[in-house]
């Protein structure tokens, strides 16, 4: 790669550190005067460039001659380019920690390089608008209303539109006023990057004071810059600018080359596109704002207008601005006057001599010292010819609060002239979207006067989606944009391809894309399509564009990674893939599909709002995601899915701020799911239960309960409606208030079922038309039911008959099978999950008793003496437990084998069961052989401990013990941190203590005991003083002989540093018993208080998992569960009867029932949103905001009244003068004899008396 190519890569690369900016001096140049041309007025000591003879290079100084003195100095001819020596960061002394970026560059530097430097390397966000403030240089006095326009109008518009402000960059004139306005806004705005105003100063290098402080050929990071006389106008850099472009044309003390460079930069930016990475719908608007200005500014305006750059002229601000505004007004009046001879054409050629004379007079009026009047007249007439690109703002009479609207109108008027085919309101809409000004769009464009069509809103809709502008998305959907027509699968793929590369979703999708591309390249290698050295590049070059971009398959894989096996893969139907297909096979099929025409991209998205909701959630866009959630169906399910996705993304996010935002948004969606379902439950219990267990066709056949479990939505499970449904399932057909002692008594004496000891609910009637009578308009939901409780808590053995009964209801309803009363009561009792739980608990206690008896009393020697009959019964019991664990892990529908094993291992208690079973098998195998008999007995003893700990999970169903179990589990984690600190102290103290007490003791077992075991026992008070204190030593038989010690003799204790041993013991006990133990207590207290505060929520979530587990278990407990296993094997694999047990927690609705339930759920969601909106409007913050608006309006009216008062005072003064003049005239006439009055002079009536009346 050539050096120039590497330099170009540095310009186009992303921002780096100070160490990788060496390319700047290679690409960016400065200008240095190379020919000394003496100024005639300087006596030969100063060059026409403004620099002295000593300031030139020796070669340039040697060029002094009479011929050179006769020349006119020109930057291009008499200066040359050299590598720049001033770039980096500048720190303004006395201005805090504020740093700005700066660069000295040649006046003819390409604008492309400069813009790439600003956006890519310096990291300035791409603007949605560029306002270039020109004029007002030097020490001109700026009028107060101009300052008010800059502060309240320009800066406010820059913030709301995401604009750049180009200024002169020096602390003088208008540039200083702009800097002060930016400073005042920054002091009052929030500390957020979204609220910062970006001001870029474009200043002449030769005019900057103390510019030598910025010179450093290697770059300054930072350069300390001192500013003097801060209260006065000066040519120091303004510290309120974010970046400085110091334009150098080789001159000193003059503004050469700045305006031309600035005009080229403005023109280049105007051809770039707005939005993230240029994804906007329009090019970046550039507006030049003229304030005052000298005669040279007329040529600047003329040249810029020739490039179709719009201008905003502040009339009344100064010479050039006033001249242009007056000429435009005067000539327009002449042109539109029908009696004027020049009214037939607007061009200068048809203007009459009187009009030219009028322009000439105005030029002389504002620039009396200028000699080239005719040249200025031509400039003014050329400006008038481009008057369509000029907007005049009369700040003294117009309100500064509407300045942003003026900017929009100015740019809109120019855009209409540039593109004649553009429709006026479409271009104005694009500008409003680019500036994110939905208020302007509502007031000007969507006020009912324009009938918007779909095609007019399509491009702006994409712009609003990509650039995160949810208010515009809502506005478009309310005014003519049909989301069904808009969102196709192809457009959805384009939205994913436009993700910002800073998001986590982008990196995850790129990994999936790379996997697909790597698989395609490997297949090409296998098929011999390319050689090993060229396969990678040739495959990429030969692949179509769709093969190199993100597809819906990558999105589906990402959602599968985030949501897991809760739902089926997304977008497989559009891609014509089977959900049961393995990922590798699916990759191959997608590769073949993308090589073809990809007809699926022209299809409409099946669930557009849900697809956009997922797209917004993956990018962590809160407002956009909440809006799409409001528009999407299945509100509870969507909110829980959003919660699940965000919590999984937060685990993968590295940035702390983004992680917290994801967790906050996830909690918000969980709250929304909780609130919506609460509304549904209050409206109709039966419909709410159906909502929980119905399979969602949009979210891959998942249910709300499954999604809430995966999302760890504890708050959702604490809702009363969820708990009521779980209680119904838990108790089956029995009454919920049945006492436990009645269950135990009936468990051991089944004939009690025929008595009234246990109350059963009356059998609910099956409704043939489940949705019949439901009011789909009012959506009350109280007049009908979606699913009866028979569907929810149906008996397992009757499920097949009940399903057949439902299928034939439309033809001829069949009565249920009548069974004897005793058989019916037995089935209702034994098939309830609470009975299954009770049986398992009782039999588990019996199992532990048997296990303990075998270990303690009946553990026979190895064969042929053992094992005993009771031990064989224990073996069979554990065998039934193993069969149940196999059923739980492998006999699960709809998952691959590896996924089944993964799901099984993820559960903590399954790990405990697996450990207990493995230990039991190991212990049984070892106890069968004499050599390992005692080892096997020890393993069995440890295994009994593991089986006993399994009781903790059983007691999780208890309301008081359940939260305590969670507290214990979290405290165990705290103990690990405590043990880490304790191990450090144990090691440090133990090694030091051993080294001081025993000079030589090579016995490894005793070293371990004295280094770890004894210091650990010291914590509990077991301190052998007779072995540590020299005054209390026991003189036992010991030796210092090395050979004897190695042979096993006890070494003698060394008393040389006994004082240090005692001191270390004191310090050790101080830190362990006081510091570390109290730290552990504090950690336990924090954990207890944190869990206890939400103990009810934790318990309800645990209770759900336990109910699901025992609802899916066979009714008989171990060891009789083997009968249920044999029965299940016969029904599933011999008779081929499908399982219906899972339908207790998953019901699939069809036909109109799905739509009716969705409409009812949407109605409850709208009720909730309306109530939340009302409460928000009535909140204190909303009231304060409305009060603030009213106060601002009152203050504005008071200011207008003050203006009226001033005008009235002026009018009274003039009236008083007129009255005085008339009185003087009357008095003079009365004293003269010229006129004789026929009646006396009138008297002034006193109106104060009338006002008092």
TrEMBL record:
Annotated TRPM-like domain residues: 444-719
Keywords: Ion channel, Ion transport, Membrane, Transmembrane, Transmembrane helix, Transport
Bilayer topology: Multi-pass membrane protein
Residues covered by the TRPM SLOG domain: 102-326
Residues that span the membrane, as ranges: 829-854, 914-933, 939-957, 977-1000, 1059-1081
GO cellular component assignments: membrane
Gene Ontology MF, one: calcium channel activity
Entry keyword annotation includes Ion transport: yes
InterPro entries referenced in this protein's UniProt entry, alphabetically: Ion_trans_dom, TRPC_channel, TRPM, TRPM-like, TRPM_SLOG
Localization, UniProt: Membrane
Annotated ranges, domain Ion transport: 845-1095
Name assigned to this protein: Transient receptor potential cation channel, subfamily M, member 4a
Organism: Oryzias latipes
Lineage per the UniProt record: Eukaryota, Metazoa, Chordata, Craniata, Vertebrata
Name of the gene: trpm4a
């Amino acid at each position: 790669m050539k050096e120039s190519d590497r330099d170009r890569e540095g310009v186009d690369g992303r921002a780096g550190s100070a160490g990788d900016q060496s390319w700047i001096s290679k690409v960016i140049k400065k200008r240095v005067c190379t020919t000394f041309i003496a100024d005639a007025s300087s006596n030969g000591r100063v060059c026409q460039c403004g620099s002295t003879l000593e300031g030139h290079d020796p070669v340039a100084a040697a060029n002094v001659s009479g011929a050179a003195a006769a020349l006119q100095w020109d930057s291009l001819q008499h200066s040359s380019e050299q590598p720049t020596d001033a770039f980096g960061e500048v720190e303004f002394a006395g201005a805090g920690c504020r740093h700005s970026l700066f660069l000295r560059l040649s006046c003819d530097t390409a604008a492309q390089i400069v813009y790439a430097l600003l956006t890519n390397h310096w990291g300035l966000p791409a603007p949605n608008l560029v306002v270039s403030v020109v004029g007002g240089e030097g020490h001109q006095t700026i009028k107060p209303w101009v300052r008010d326009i800059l502060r309240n109008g320009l800066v406010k518009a820059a913030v709301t539109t995401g604009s750049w402000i180009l200024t002169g960059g020096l602390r003088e004139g208008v540039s200083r006023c702009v800097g002060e306005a930016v400073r005042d806004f920054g002091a009052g705005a929030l500390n957020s990057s979204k609220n910062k105003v970006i001001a870029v100063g474009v200043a002449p290098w030769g005019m900057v004071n103390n510019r030598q402080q910025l010179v450093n050929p290697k770059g300054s990071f930072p350069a300390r810059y001192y500013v003097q006389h801060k209260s006065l106008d000066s040519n120091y850099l303004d510290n309120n600018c974010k970046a400085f472009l110091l334009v150098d044309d080789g001159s000193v003390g003059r503004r050469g080359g700045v305006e031309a460079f600035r005009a080229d930069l403005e023109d280049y930016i105007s051809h770039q596109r707005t939005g993230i990475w240029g994804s906007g719908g329009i090019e970046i608007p550039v507006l030049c704002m003229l304030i005052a200005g000298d005669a040279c500014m007329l040529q600047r305006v003329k040249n810029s207008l020739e490039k179709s750059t719009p201008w905003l002229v502040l009339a009344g601000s100064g010479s050039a601005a006033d001249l242009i505004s007056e000429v435009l007004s005067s000539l327009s009046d002449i042109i539109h006057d029908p009696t004027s001879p020049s009214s037939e054409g607007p061009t200068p050629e048809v203007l009459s001599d009187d009009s030219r004379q009028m322009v000439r007079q105005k030029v002389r009026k504002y620039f009396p010292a200028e000699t080239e009047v005719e040249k200025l007249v031509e400039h003014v007439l050329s400006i008038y010819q481009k008057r369509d690109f000029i907007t005049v703002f009369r700040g003294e009479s117009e309100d500064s609060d509407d300045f942003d609207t003026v900017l929009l109108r100015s740019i809109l008027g120019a855009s209409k002239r540039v593109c004649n085919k553009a429709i006026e309101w479409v271009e104005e809409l694009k500008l409003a979207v680019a500036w994110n000004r939905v208020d302007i769009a509502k007031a000007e464009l969507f006020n009912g006067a324009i009938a918007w069509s779909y095609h007019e809103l399509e491009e702006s809709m994409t712009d609003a989606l990509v650039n995160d502008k949810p208010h515009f998305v809502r506005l478009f959907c309310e005014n003519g944009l049909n989301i069904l027509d808009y969102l196709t699968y192809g457009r959805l793929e384009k939205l994913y391809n436009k993700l910002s590369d800073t998001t986590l979703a982008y990196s995850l999708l790129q990994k999936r894309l790379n996997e697909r591309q790597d698989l395609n390249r490997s297949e090409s290698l296998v098929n011999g399509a390319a050689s090993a050295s060229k396969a990678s590049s040739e495959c990429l070059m030969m692949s179509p564009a769709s093969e190199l971009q993100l597809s819906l398959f990558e999105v589906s894989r990402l959602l599968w990674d985030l949501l897991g096996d809760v739902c089926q893969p997304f977008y497989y139907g559009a891609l014509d893939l089977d959900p049961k297909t393995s990922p590798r096979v699916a990759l191959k099929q997608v590769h073949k599909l993308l090589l073809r025409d990809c007809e699926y991209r022209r299809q409409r998205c099946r669930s557009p709002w849900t697809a956009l909701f997922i797209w917004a959630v993956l990018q962590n866009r809160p407002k956009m995601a909440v809006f799409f959630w409001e528009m999407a169906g299945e509100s509870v399910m969507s909110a829980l899915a959003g919660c699940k996705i965000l919590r999984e993304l937060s685990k993968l996010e590295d940035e702390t701020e983004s992680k917290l935002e994801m967790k906050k948004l996830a909690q918000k969606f969980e709250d929304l799911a909780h609130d919506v379902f609460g509304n549904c439950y209050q409206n109709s219990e039966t419909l709410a239960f159906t909502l929980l267990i119905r399979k969602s066709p949009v979210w891959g056949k998942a249910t709300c309960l499954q999604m809430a479990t995966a999302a760890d939505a504890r708050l959702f499970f604490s809702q009363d409606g969820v708990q009521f449904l779980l209680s119904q399932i838990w108790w089956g057909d029995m009454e919920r208030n049945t006492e436990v002692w009645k269950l135990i008594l009936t468990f051991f004496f089944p004939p009690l079922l025929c008595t009234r000891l246990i109350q059963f609910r009356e059998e609910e009637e099956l409704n043939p038309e489940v949705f019949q009578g439901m009011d789909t308009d009012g959506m009350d939901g109280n007049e009908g039911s979606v699913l009866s409780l028979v569907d929810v808590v149906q008996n397992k053995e009757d499920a097949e008959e009940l399903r057949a009964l439902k299928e034939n209801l439309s033809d001829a309803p069949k009565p249920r099978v009548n069974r004897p009363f005793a058989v019916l009561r037995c089935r209702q009792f034994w098939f309830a999950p609470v009975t299954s739980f009770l049986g398992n608990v009782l039999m588990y206690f019996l199992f532990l008793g048997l296990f303990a008896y075998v270990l303690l009393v009946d553990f026979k020697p190895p064969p042929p003496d053992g094992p005993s009959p009771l031990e064989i019964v224990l073996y069979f019991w554990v065998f039934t437990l193993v069969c149940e664990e196999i059923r739980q892990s492998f006999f699960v529908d709809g998952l691959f084998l590896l996924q089944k094993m993964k799901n099984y291992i993820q559960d903590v208690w399954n790990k405990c069961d697996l450990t207990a079973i493995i230990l039991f098998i190991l212990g049984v195998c070892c106890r069968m052989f004499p050599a390992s008999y005692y080892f096997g007995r020890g393993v069995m003893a440890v295994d009994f401990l593991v089986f006993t700990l399994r009781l903790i999970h059983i007691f999780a169903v208890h309301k008081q013990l359940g939260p305590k179990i969670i507290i214990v589990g979290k405290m165990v984690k705290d103990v690990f941190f405590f043990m880490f600190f304790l191990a450090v102290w144990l090691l440090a103290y133990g090694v030091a203590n051993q080294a001081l007490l025993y000079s030589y003791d090579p016995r490894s077992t005793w070293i371990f005991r004295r280094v770890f075991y004894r210091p650990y026992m010291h914590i509990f008070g077991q301190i052998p003083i007779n072995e540590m204190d020299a005054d209390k030593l026991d003189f036992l038989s010991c030796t210092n002989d090395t050979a004897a010690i190695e042979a096993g003799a006890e070494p003698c204790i060394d008393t040389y540093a006994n004082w240090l041993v005692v001191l270390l013991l004191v310090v050790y006990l101080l830190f362990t018993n006081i510091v570390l133990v109290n730290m552990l207590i504090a950690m336990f207290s924090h954990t207890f208080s944190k869990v206890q505060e939400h103990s009810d929520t934790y318990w309800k979530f645990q209770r759900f998992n336990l109910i699901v587990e025992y609802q899916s278990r066979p009714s008989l407990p171990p060891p009789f569960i083997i009968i249920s296993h044999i029965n299940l094997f016969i029904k599933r694999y011999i008779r081929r009867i499908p399982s219906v047990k899972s339908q207790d927690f998953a019901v699939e609705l069809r036909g109109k029932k799905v739509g009716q339930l969705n409409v009812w759920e949407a109605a409850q969601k709208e009720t909730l949103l309306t109530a939340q909106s009302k409460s928000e409007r009535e909140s204190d913050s909303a009231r304060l905001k409305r009060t603030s608006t009213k106060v601002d309006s009152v203050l504005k009216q008071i200011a207008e009244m003050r203006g009226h008062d001033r005008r009235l005072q002026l009018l009274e003064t003039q009236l008083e003068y007129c009255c005085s003049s008339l009185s003087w005239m009357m008095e003079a006439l009365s004293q003269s004899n010229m006129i004789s009055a026929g009646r006396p002079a009138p008297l002034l009536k006193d109106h104060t008396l009338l006002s008092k009346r």
